Amino acid sequence: MNILEEIKDAACVGITGHVRPDGDCLGSTLGLYNYLKVNRPDLSVDLYLEQPGAEFSYLTGIDEILHTPKNVAYDVFIVLDCGSIDRIEPFTQCFEQAKKTICIDHHISSQNNDFADINLVKPEASSASEVLYTTFDEDKVNKAVAECIYTGIIHDTGVFKYSCTSAKTMEIAGKMMEKGIAYSDIIDNSFYKKTYVQNQILGRALLESVLFYDGKCIFSNVTRDEMAFYGVTGKELGGIIEQLRLTDGVEVAIFLYETGDHEHKVSMRSKKQIDVAKIAAEFGGGGHVRAAGFTGKGTVYSIVNKIGEMIERQYVDMSQ
Ligand code: AMP
Ligand code: MN
Ligand code: MN
Predict the structure, then answer these.
(1) Domain 196-319: CATH architecture, name and number where available
(2) 263 in Cβ contact with 295 (< 8 Å)
(3) Which residue CA neighbors atom 22 of ligand 1 most closely?
(4) At a CB cut-off of 8 Å and minimum separation 6, what does 184 contact?
(5) Alpha-carbon distance 279 to 132, whole Å?
(6) What is the pLDDT of residues 153-162, one digit of tens each?
(7) Mean predicted confidence (pLDDT) in 117-128
(8) Using one digit for the tens of pLDDT, what is the confidence trace for 203-212?
(9) Which residues surround ligand 2, an ion (CB under 5 A)?
(10) pLDDT confidence of residue 320
(11) In the chain, where are the structural domains located?
(12) H helices of the chain, where?
């Protein structure tokens, strides 16, 4: 696909990504937004997302993101880094009213149900940003676009270390470096940097983490009261699951934070064996084999117990 070809007859285009936008969601949507702004100056482009985290403030165009849907029938509406239509709330109406819809994504087929008119879905790609880049003309990518693509790639590969990282991923990242981006700063500031309170709550979550299933699993949780005490929101708890995952001997890490009465946002990561996307799907969520999530009803213990049973089932199936 060549994205400029796909939209050549359009006068107005809308773009969105998934709820609670992460680095890849922001990198891919803003990457496309900036690419279209530069290469189709005549085009009217709107980007819709929830409020992004402050660590992404260096991305060009971030202040132009809209948070409420306009009542516009877009010529083309493009959804990135999102496998199902229910994850673009509250911007579904823009999608439904559009004359043509495109999805550019990397979620596996059981989760990406080809909901758009045109679907470019590459489950083997590290990130939606990587898939998006293949739709660009290389010489039309400027530094601002390169910063977005690079950001998306480093976030979904955990800075080039998850198994979704391929030689192609590295090749694209290298090309982005050649555009003169400040890659060290991008990695430090958007991925690793923690505020003082983020470090405090990370420390607390690690201190209270619990190993179970012979040390193969670990979980920790943060309550609404704790979040209020430290003055943080869910967006600022991103690094905790990563640190849990690194625990020696652990195959699956689970992190939960309370979002309502008996309601939790649950993140799961695995190292080599357990398919956490399968577990998330059973709770109505999704993601990738090694990184998945869902929002679940119940207490921390009831959710963790259920996940534990599903992990056990996968181990039993593997041994047969
Ligand atoms: P997270 O643990 O929130 O960082 O999410 C890990 C991966 O799972 C990302 O690719 C998310 O897009 C995906 N994911 C998280 N929550 C959900 C959900 N409720 N539905 C579908 N996919 C999800
Ligand atoms: Mn994402
Ligand atoms: Mn992604």
Answers:
(1) Roll (3.10)
(2) yes
(3) 286
(4) none
(5) 28
(6) 999 999 999 8
(7) 97
(8) 999 999 999 9
(9) 22, 24-25, 81
(10) 87
(11) 3-192, 196-319
(12) 3-6, 23-39, 92-97, 128-133, 143-156, 167-177, 183-186, 196-207, 224-230, 240-245, 276-282, 300-319
Q: What is the CATH number of domain 3-192?
A: 3.90.1640.10
Ligand 3 centre and the CA of 25: distance in Å?
6
| Residue 113 confidence class, pLDDT cut points 50, 70, 90 | confident
Find out whether the beta carbon of 307 lies less than 6 Å from any atom of ligand 1.
no
| Average pLDDT value for residue range 173-179 | 98
First vs last C-alpha separation in the chain:
43
Separation between Cα atoms, residue 128 and residue 130, nearest integer Å:
5
Cβ–ligand 1 contact at 287 (below 6 Å)? yes
3-192 against 196-319: fold identical? no
Is residue 295 within 6 Å of ligand 1 at its C-beta? Answer: yes
DSSP classification of residue 36 = H
Q: Cα–Cα distance between 40 and 81 in angstroms, integer?
A: 23
Mean pLDDT along residues 208-233: 97
